[in-house]
TrEMBL record, chain A:
It comes from Cyclopterus lumpus (Lumpsucker). GO terms for biological process: attachment of GPI anchor to protein. This is Phosphatidylinositol glycan anchor biosynthesis class T. Transmembrane segments: none annotated. The keyword DNA-binding does not apply. Keywords: Signal. One of its GO terms (cellular component) is GPI-anchor transamidase complex. InterPro entries: PIG-T. The keyword Nucleotidyltransferase does not apply. Residues 49-60 have a biased composition (Acidic residues). Residues 1-24 form the signal peptide. Residues 49-91 are annotated as: Disordered.
From TrEMBL, chain B:
The chain crosses the membrane at residues 68-99, 143-172, 184-208, 229-251, 257-278, 285-306, 312-330, 351-377, 383-405. Pathway: Glycolipid biosynthesis; glycosylphosphatidylinositol-anchor biosynthesis. It comes from the Eukaryota. One of its GO terms (biological process) is GPI anchor biosynthetic process. Keywords: Endoplasmic reticulum, GPI-anchor biosynthesis, Membrane, Signal, Transmembrane, Transmembrane helix. GO terms for cellular component: GPI-anchor transamidase complex. Residues 1-17 form the signal peptide. Belongs to the PIGU family. This is Phosphatidylinositol glycan anchor biosynthesis, class U. It is a multi-pass membrane protein. The gene is pigu.
Length: 644, 433
């Protein structure tokens, strides 16, 4: 007992000395003038020298933040050094969950506006240890239960309306194919993966009010290389991976409402108040997604936590050709302005991409901000204006923030995306066809390998021996091909291959297929509209043109740090091609009875004539007696007289 | 006699080789009338490509050939054209030889019957003269080799040509009286596509007749022979299936080949009766009608064997015709094979053969036209093509039943005399009763 007490006091002593050390250390850091405190903000905050009025504010801010950091680090000595923003949180013992929200707005060269919302909830818990998790704070309970019930290790789901035009808009922060996409890594303790997957899709279908229950074995594949786990965990056995797309899924309000309900503040406060469906769906592109994965809490990855990322990307077409004036504002886009951050959020920010216009020549942002940030996004160094919604000063005197961008001129050149792809069906008639996939490598001098994943439904029978890959007029043999042929009414074709794209080239992949005639009940209600074939997925590590800043690899904004990337000189990129619409031959739906009757008649003709010949024998024809004679014979028979 | 045959073979091979070189070959090999999912050459190549990729060809639903075919073409894929031409030549020669041999037997039988005065006097004109018999083998070979259906099937490299060769060899070995070879070739044919199983009865009847064993269920010698034949047949079938298993290392091919033939999952249009019927079928009746249609193919064996137990060679022909009409994925190649013995009974026929052949010709011309209208032009729908398949099948059925009728009638005349008289002495007409 005494020994026990002794060890306890020793532990206390150690903690105290540790505290003293940390305080001293951080003091030293500020004395040397290091921007340690601002780095906590995940950004390289730079003060703009041009604006003299704003010069004193950052200094004040820096001091305050430094204070926060000290308190923060003193109270929580083990984990979660990121995002120590609010004083409220740091005064109480550090909760094990954390919520951040941000909005990135990027003016596109086509005159459209790209707005990307990201909401991240981190929770240090273990769903897998029985059913102990019952108290939910920020993490949505419905998803938590799904994770523990179905032993999900990673879940990625997206609903997209419209097609992302890579050539006009550049790369999205998070790519997604048109329609619904779902891919899930299960824990390796799951024995019946297919059964669990079936149940999971039905549950998700209920949660998101989407037709995910139409995911069955005919549109589910197990990619061997294209979809690796994005969170921690080293199990990459693709038996535990399921991937499915529903290219025909229509995304609308009924999918947005349940998605918003997963947010801690709902649509009551914070950035989510902007998500009004009548505006969001009046857009060129809309994509909402949920990503769940286990992530590391600290450098050594001693503790893991679950990350829930909800993203919503939308492209507004505000360009009206009649009016020469181009401007947009939060109010014009979302018919709302911002008045506060979500009180539960530890960080709430708006970023505006001003890379193309650092001097304010092309457009003008108001209210102006002094905070700038740089980040590496998809191989490109971008500059952003930052608005921190947790600061009251952001909202100004009117207590509402309505960002406004006014275009002055509309010239400017976009950096062509290094990798993009397109796909189409060639051929005519309803018997055969050919799928062409074009992959463009726009890098001026480097070739890089890409992984192409194609999942084609069984009713387009692919002929793998007709597969050709050509680039620059020459045959380009894929170094890896994983092909799983389809089974009728059971599973789709899966074609995965690793192709090296030569620099500055177009690589064309063609494969022929044959269209099947289906049973009349297997057609959709509008069979002559055609059948959708999901997008091909092209995943690649693209060499970046800009050398990446190695110091900022860890402390990046959320939207640039999604895909883990070990190699600094290249970045991960995923491109989805267009879904295909393919016509199939159709039977006449109006005449099943006629067909059954007519075919059976023919069979009966065959049976009847053979039966006739088999059972009868030849006899000499007796001329049949006349009617009168027959009647007379009957009468004679009755009388007992021999017939005539 | 060999010189005309050689000439015929040369002509046939030349025609095929010329067509292989022409641009028509690609067009023909895509035609649904010529190739079915079971026999398409494109699918054989696909199977080989899958094998090269290290994927089992039977893991997908494109390849439905038997393992022996895939291993045959694994070595012969570069010589495929020669292989298919050779298969046609083998078929023709085998038919030639078997018909020649059969003619000799018919002659011998006829001579004995004449000597025994078994034929009525007035039907001497029905008896075959050696002169007209002389050219029959050549006619058969010519009919097979220069038949446009056979040529199309060969140019499309439909593996149905190989099946026909196996069946022709089976017929030859049966007629030559070689029990073992007959059983082996029959098991090969069964292995290729289940349906030739029904030829078993015909072969047995013929071999029994040849060895003068009466078909008597109470005789031991009858059962002993049946057991011998069944043992050889099943034994060789077992060996072949076992060999396929060892080549492939799995039983995947069983559901993929035989399950595919029997359950008809692929509804690609063809000239048969199955595709549209099962495309339009109500789901809960599907299994029932599938059973009915498949039993229909096998069902005729029993009554036909009873009726034709004295004429097993004609029985073989009838079986082939029934199979080619009612099988699940028929092609024109099958029909060509079933035509081969048509001449046999034709001498006594007062048939509507003109009508039937006109219908068959018109259908053959209309198939591509209506296919084009449906699939490419979009101005017709599936019913058009379906209607023509129905008509084609009706014509085939009429043809077969007419031949059957003619054959039965000839047999009746041979035993009862050609000019039948009624009791009152006036001329009588024959009717089936």
């Amino acid at each position: 007992m005494a020994a026990h007490r002794c060890s306890l006091s020793a532990l206390l002593l150690i903690i105290c000395s540790l505290l003293v050390f940390i305080v001293a250390d951080s003091e030293k850091a500020t004395l040397t003038g290091d921007h340690h405190a601002t780095a906590v903000d995940n950004l390289q905050t730079v003060t703009e020298t041009e604006e003299g009025a704003a010069a004193e504010e950052p200094a004040v801010e820096e001091e305050r933040r430094w204070e926060e950091t000290v308190v923060e680090e003193a109270t929580a000595d083990k984990e979660d050094t990121s995002a120590p923003e609010t004083v409220v949180q740091s005064s109480v013992p550090q909760p094990k969950d954390d919520f951040q929200e941000e909005l990135v707005i990027r003016p596109l060269h086509s005159g459209d506006i790209y707005a990307s919302f990201q909401f991240r909830t981190l929770w240090e818990t273990d769903f897998m240890r029985g059913n102990k998790v019952s108290h939910y704070r920020l993490f949505p309970k419905s998803l938590g239960q799904v994770i523990s019930k179905f032993s999900v290790r990673e879940l990625h789901i997206s609903f997209t309306q419209g097609y992302w035009r890579t050539m006009q808009w550049g790369q999205p922060f998070l790519p997604s194919p048109p329609g619904a996409e779902l891919w899930v890594w299960f824990q390796d303790s799951v024995t019946d993966v297919d059964g669990t997957w079936k149940e999971l899709t039905n549950v998700l279908s209920g949660i998101f009010c989407a037709s995910l229950n139409f995911i069955d074995s005919t549109n589910t594949v197990q990619p061997s290389a294209s979809f690796k786990p994005l969170g921690i965990g080293n199990v990459t056995d693709h038996r535990f991976l399921r991937y499915a797309t529903l290219p025909r899924e229509i995304v609308c309000t009924e999918n947005l409402t349940p998605w918003k309900k997963l947010l801690p503040c709902g649509s009551k406060a914070g950035l989510a108040v902007l998500l009004k469906s009548e505006k969001l769906f009046h857009s060129s592109f809309h994509s909402q997604a949920v990503h769940i994965r286990p992530v590391c809490q600290d450098w050594q990855c001693k503790t893991t936590s679950w990350e829930l990322r909800q993203t919503l990307n939308v492209v507004f077409d505000l360009h009206t050709p009649g009016q020469g004036k181009l401007e947009w504002s939060l109010f014009k886009m979302f018919s709302r302005t911002l008045t506060e951050a979500c009180p539960l959020a530890s960080s709430s920010k708006i970023y505006i991409d001003i890379t193309d216009d650092p001097q304010g020549e092309q457009f003008e942002v108001s209210p102006a901000t002094h905070l700038l940030s740089q980040a590496m996004v998809l191989g490109d160094r971008r500059t952003f204006s930052v608005y921190d919604l947790t600061q009251q000063i952001t909202f100004g005197t009117v207590r509402s923030l309505n960002l406004l961008i006014r275009w002055k001129s509309s010239e400017g050149d976009m950096l062509r995306p290094l990798l993009h792809a397109e796909r189409y069906v060639a051929g005519y008639g309803l018997q055969t066809g050919e799928i062409h996939t074009l992959m463009y490598n726009n890098h001026p001098y480097r070739s890089f390998p890409v992984l192409l994943l194609d999942s084609v439904p069984w009713y387009l029978r692919l002929y793998i021996h007709t597969l050709t890959v050509t680039s620059k007029g020459k045959d380009n043999k894929p170094s890896y091909i994983h092909y799983q042929p389809s089974k009728d009414r059971v599973r789709p074709h899966l074609l995965e291959m690793l192709v090296q794209l030569p620099p500055n080239s177009v690589t064309e992949v063609t494969v022929q297929f044959e269209r099947a005639l289906l049973k009349w009940t297997e057609y959709t209600p509008d069979p002559n509209h055609g059948f959708y074939v999901g997008s091909s997925v092209i995943s690649s590590l693209v060499p970046s043109i800009v050398a990446m800043d190695t110091n900022s690899t860890r402390e990046q904004p959320l939207f640039s740090s999604f895909f883990p990337c070990k190699e600094e000189s290249s970045y991960f990129m995923r491109v989805y091609t267009e879904p295909l619409l393919v016509n199939l031959p159709t039977p006449d739906f109006s005449m099943p009875y006629n067909v059954i009757c007519l075919t059976c008649t023919v069979v009966a003709v065959g049976y009847g004539s053979l039966y006739n010949l088999l059972t009868r024998s030849f006899q000499i024809e007796e001329p049949s007696p006349g009617l009168a004679k027959r009647i007379a014979n009957i009468i004679r028979k009755m009388r007992g007289v021999p017939p005539l | 006699m060999a010189a005309p045959l050689t000439l015929l073979l040369l002509v046939a091979v030349t025609v095929r080789a010329a067509l292989y070189r022409s641009s028509l070959a690609d067009l023909i090999s895509e035609r649904v009338e010529v190739v079915s999912p079971l026999t398409a050459w494109k699918r054989v190549v696909e199977g080989l490509a899958l094998l090269d990729l290290g994927v089992s060809p039977y893991s997908g639903d494109v390849f439905h050939e038997t393992p022996l075919i895939i291993y045959l073409f694994h070595f012969l894929v570069d010589y495929a054209e020669i292989t298919f031409m050779l298969a046609d030549v083998i078929t023709a020669v085998a038919l030639y030889l078997s018909v020649k041999d059969y003619n000799k037997q018919v002659f011998r039988k006829q001579k004995y019957a004449l000597e025994a005065d078994r034929y009525p006097l007035d039907c001497l004109e029905l008896i075959r003269s050696p002169k007209e018999m002389q050219y029959i083998p050549l006619k058969v070979a010519m009919f097979y080799l220069l038949n446009p259906f056979t040529i199309l099937s060969c140019v499309a490299k439909s593996t149905c040509g190989l099946n026909n060769a196996v069946i022709a060899l089976f017929v030859l070995s049966t007629i030559k009286g070689n029990v073992l070879l007959s059983a082996i070739f029959l098991s090969l044919a069964t292995y290729q596509s289940i349906y030739p199983l029904t030829l078993c009865a015909a072969a047995l009847l013929y071999l029994l007749q040849r060895q003068y064993i009466p078909v008597n269920l109470r005789r031991f010698s009858f059962w002993w022979f049946v057991a011998q034949y069944a043992f050889m047949y099943l034994g060789s079938l077992f060996v072949i299936v076992g060999l396929s298993f060892f080549l492939l290392g799995s039983w995947d091919f069983l559901p993929s080949v035989y399950g595919f033939i029997l359950s008809v999952p692929d509804l690609t249009p063809n000239i048969g009766l199955f595709w549209y019927f099962f495309a339009e079928m109500f789901e809960h009746f599907r299994l029932f009608f599938l059973c009915v249609f498949q039993i229909n193919v096998f069902f005729y064996t029993v009554p036909l064997s009873i009726k034709l137990k004295e004429h097993p060679v004609f029985l073989i022909f009838m079986q082939l015709a029934v199979i080619s009409i009612f099988k699940s994925y028929p092609t024109v190649g099958d029909i060509a094979a079933s035509f081969i013995k048509h001449h046999k009974a034709s001498s006594a026929s007062s048939l509507n053969i003109f009508l039937v052949s006109c219908v068959l010709l018109a259908c053959s011309a209309l198939f591509p036209v209506l296919w084009h209208l449906w699939i490419y032009a979009g101005s017709a729908n599936s019913n058009f093509y379906y209607a023509i398949t129905l008509l084609f099948n009706v014509a085939q059925i009429l043809l077969v039943s007419d031949y059957f009728y003619a054959f039965l009638r000839r047999e009746h005349h041979l035993s009862h005399g050609l000019y039948l008289k009624r009791k009152d002495g006036s001329e009588a007409t024959l009717v089936l009763k």
